[in-house]
TrEMBL record, chain B:
<dbReference type="InterPro" id="IPR001851">
    <property type="entry name" value="ABC_transp_permease"/>
</dbReference>
<feature type="transmembrane region" description="Helical">
    <location>
        <begin position="146"/>
        <end position="163"/>
    </location>
</feature>
<dbReference type="Pfam" id="PF02653">
    <property type="entry name" value="BPD_transp_2"/>
</dbReference>
<keyword id="KW-1133">Transmembrane helix</keyword>
<dbReference type="GO" id="GO:0005886">
    <property type="term" value="C:plasma membrane"/>
</dbReference>
<keyword id="KW-1003">Cell membrane</keyword>
<protein>
    <submittedName>
        <fullName>Branched-chain amino acid ABC transporter permease</fullName>
    </submittedName>
</protein>
<feature type="transmembrane region" description="Helical">
    <location>
        <begin position="60"/>
        <end position="82"/>
    </location>
</feature>
<keyword id="KW-0472">Membrane</keyword>
<keyword id="KW-0812">Transmembrane</keyword>
<dbReference type="GO" id="GO:0022857">
    <property type="term" value="F:transmembrane transporter activity"/>
</dbReference>
<feature type="transmembrane region" description="Helical">
    <location>
        <begin position="195"/>
        <end position="217"/>
    </location>
</feature>
<dbReference type="InterPro" id="IPR052157">
    <property type="entry name" value="BCAA_transport_permease"/>
</dbReference>
<feature type="transmembrane region" description="Helical">
    <location>
        <begin position="229"/>
        <end position="254"/>
    </location>
</feature>
<dbReference type="InterPro" id="IPR017779">
    <property type="entry name" value="ABC_UrtB_bac"/>
</dbReference>
<dbReference type="GO" id="GO:0006865">
    <property type="term" value="P:amino acid transport"/>
</dbReference>
<comment type="similarity">
    <text>Belongs to the binding-protein-dependent transport system permease family. LivHM subfamily.</text>
</comment>
Length: 414, 295
């Protein structure tokens, strides 16, 4: 046994030495390494970028659409001449809906492929799994999905909404509609529990009554009792942080209990166009969602985006908020690189503050301090055709505030 | 008061769903001692059958009615195929049936993913079944749940009658009580096994049709409910239809009441603790089968 271990150890060290030698050779032709991290290989006519999404497993449904949107941006950028005169060469890896796999593949993209930046991840669990990998290797990750906030990594750019750009505006909207009480329904894991903590703090400060709070295990499909409780509470609205499949069962039960968007509206933060399609509009018609982008968002940039996406992936494929944020992240990275005049991670990061892009959702600007972006908040109503139309927006981009420092009621949350 | 009545009905309807998914398993696991992990995928097959039928029959009500017998036949045929191809070689090795059918279950899930795609699909329920029946001011009962309750009553009645009064039923009971003796008496045990599998798997298909009214249709929907089905059969007493019926409704009621007072996660824990405690007290389940078998 011991001998076997030693032999394996020897083999590993040889492999490691070889890898180091190779990467040392590479960096001679690449850019100089100013930071001690792994440097991207930019010696040729192309520069590699990493795509890290679940192409298999339970998250594939959502993450494949994000990968498609990233590919679209990469192709458009290449067709327009690339970045700093170099074409982008995408390297795709499958995270397989498994967090350790995400970490492993991130390491591979950084060290073996030596990509200049990685785009991807969806669940908070996958992001938390790769975070130390990017930090150790001083490499860049662009994360495109709305999340629970309370995080900031020097090597991650967050292009999805943080809580003050999605959940807080959702609550503001309910308050503006004169709603005095809400019921909280969510899946039992980190995002809904954190979100509901924030919602309760908001409610207390804003005279909104939280009449109840219920969680269902991920994948749970038995909502009889929860819907009975919601109904009996006579709340004026429901704030829904359920994820995935559970939404189908929840909305079916909701409708058959005789509850409607008119009698007790539900605001959801995890249902976008793709999910609306799979839940069924007969159950969702008239219900509300909080996001930063809808397929129906007006503007020339979005017309172009929707048209290009449908031409490439099919006319029946809707575009959604996380897809848009992923698409935007590639363009933001390009703008940062061009501003820095270099692919070097530290220089790119240094150039990030104030970089803007005319995104499909409207103008977005990077906030260099938090590495989140200024985004317009939007409340939408689900229509009979499965599309979501905006009923309210914040009037302009909202400054990202991942730790909710600008909200007095939120002190002590993090 | 209305809240309690509402919860009572929720309990009954949870019980009905539990029983519907456990009924087929009670037959194949209970009566034949085969641990069929692919039972959940037969339920999935029934659900996808409903989906496929709705692509051709656009009237939601009609397609649901057609789906019931067709799903029974489709899932039943899959059961027969599984029995013929694999399980009949493993009748004396129940633990091996677990492994083999688990493999089959994974294959069927992947097959569904390849044929229908990874995203969940939906069926359109007839409008009547998405509404609710009002019984007084605040009390209303979901029509889809009433429909499932009716379906369960019908299925249990039909199954009981078939087991009690038909020649096939007598043969099934004979094979269950003592396979060797039944074979010696001239009962074609192989054919009886296959028919039992057809009925048991067919009932899973019917459960699949019913579940489309409540939740999503997806490749993994079977794995989410198979555990509950096994619990009902084991606690009820293996080989006892009566036990499954009682236990399904008791568990449904317990779940609904505890959940109302606490939360869904806590209720799940308490129900599991209750089951474990019960099985400590009565490892053989609620009812036991009197058998002449020596084994």
């Amino acid at each position: 046994m011991l001998r076997f271990h030693r032999r394996r150890l020897a083999a590993c060290s040889v492999a490691l030495a070889a890898a180091l030698a190779v990467s040392a050779c590479g960096s001679k032709t690449g850019e100089s390494d100013t930071t001690g991290g792994v440097t991207a290989d930019t010696s040729g006519d192309t520069v590699k970028v990493g795509l890290l999404n679940s192409l298999s497993g339970t998250m594939a449904i959502s993450e494949v659409t994000v990968r498609d949107a990233i590919m679209l941006a990469v192709e458009e950028i290449n067709a327009a001449g690339g970045v700093l005169g170099k074409k982008l060469a995408p390297v795709g890896e499958d995270g397989a809906s498994d967090w350790p796999t995400f970490a492993e593949k991130a390491e591979k993209l950084i060290k073996v492929d030596r990509v200049a930046a990685v785009f991807g991840c969806w669940t908070s669990a996958s992001r938390k799994a790769v975070k130390p990998v990017f930090e150790e290797n001083k490499a860049l990750l662009f994360y495109p999905v709305q999340y629970e906030g309370l995080e900031q990594s020097p090597y991650i750019f967050y292009t999805g909404a943080t809580t003050n750009q999605q959940i807080v505006p959702g609550l503001d909207y309910l308050k503006a509609q004169g709603k005095k009480s809400v019921y909280l329904v969510g899946s039992d894991y980190v995002f809904p529990r954190t979100a509901n903590k924030i919602i309760k703090a908001y409610a207390e400060a804003n005279g909104l009554k939280v009449l109840g709070e219920d969680y269902a295990p991920l994948g749970s499909t038995e909502f009889g009792t929860i819907v009975n409780k919601v109904k009996a509470s006579k709340a004026e609205a429901v704030f829904n942080t359920l994820n995935g499949d559970s939404n189908v069962a929840f909305f079916k039960e909701y409708k058959s209990a005789g509850l409607t968007a008119a009698s007790m509206p539900v605001v959801s933060v995890s249902i976008a166009e793709e999910e609306v399609k799979s839940i069924g509009t007969q159950y969702l018609s008239g219900q509300l969602t909080a996001w930063n982008y809808y397929q129906t968002t007006t503007g020339a940039a979005n017309d172009k985006f929707v048209k290009a996406y449908k031409a490439k992936f099919g006319a029946d494929k809707p575009t959604s908020d996380p897809m848009e944020a992923a698409y935007v992240s590639v363009y933001l990275w390009k703008a940062m690189v061009e501003k820095a005049g270099s692919f070097d991670v530290e220089k790119v990061k240094g150039a990030s503050n104030g970089v803007t892009f005319e995104a499909p959702e409207g103008l977005v600007t990077i906030d260099g301090a938090t590495q989140h972006i200024h985004k317009t908040a939007r409340i939408g109503k689900i229509g009979d055709d499965g599309l979501i139309t905006e009923v309210w927006n914040s009037g302009g981009p909202v400054k990202p505030d991942p730790y909710l420092k600008g909200y007095p009621w939120a002190t002590g949350l993090s | 008061m209305t809240v309690i009545l509402g919860q009572l009905f929720t309990g009954v309807s949870i019980g009905a769903v539990l029983l519907l998914i456990a009924l087929g398993l009670a037959l194949t696991f209970g009566q034949m001692n085969v641990i069929n992990m692919a039972h959940g995928e037969f339920i999935m097959a029934g659900a996808y059958t409903t989906y496929v039928l709705q692509q051709t029959i656009t009237d939601a009500g009609l397609s649901l009615l057609v789906a019931l017998p067709v799903a029974f036949a489709v899932a039943g045929a899959m059961g027969v195929l599984l029995e013929w191809a694999l399980i009949r070689r493993l009748y004396t090795r129940p633990l091996d049936t677990l492994l083999v059918t688990w493999g089959v279950s994974l294959m069927l899930q992947q097959l569904a993913r390849d044929v229908f795609g990874a995203p969940n699909v939906q069926t359109k329920a007839p409008d009547l079944l998405t509404e609710s029946t009002s019984l007084g001011a605040d009390l209303s009962i979901a029509n889809s749940r009433l429909f499932i309750l009716g379906l369960v009553v019908l299925a249990v009645a039909a199954l009981t009658a078939a087991l009690k009064f038909t020649p096939l039923g007598r043969r099934i009971r004979a094979v269950v009580q003592n396979r060797d003796l039944a074979a010696v008496s001239g009962i074609p045990t192989g054919r009886v096994d296959r028919l039992t599998f057809f009925i048991g798997s067919g009932l899973a298909g019917v459960a699949g049709v019913a579940l489309t009214l409540l939740g999503p249709i997806g490749p993994t929907m079977g794995t989410n409910i198979i555990i509950d089905a096994f619990l009902v059969v084991v606690v009820g007493g293996i080989g006892q239809l009566k036990g499954s019926v009682i236990v399904a409704f008791v568990l449904g009621m317990l779940q609904a009441m505890v959940e109302y007072l606490t939360t869904l996660s806590v209720a799940k824990v308490i129900v599991f603790v209750a089951i474990v405690a019960f099985l400590q007290w009565r490892p053989q389940g609620l009812f036991t089968l009197r058998t002449r078998s020596l084994a």
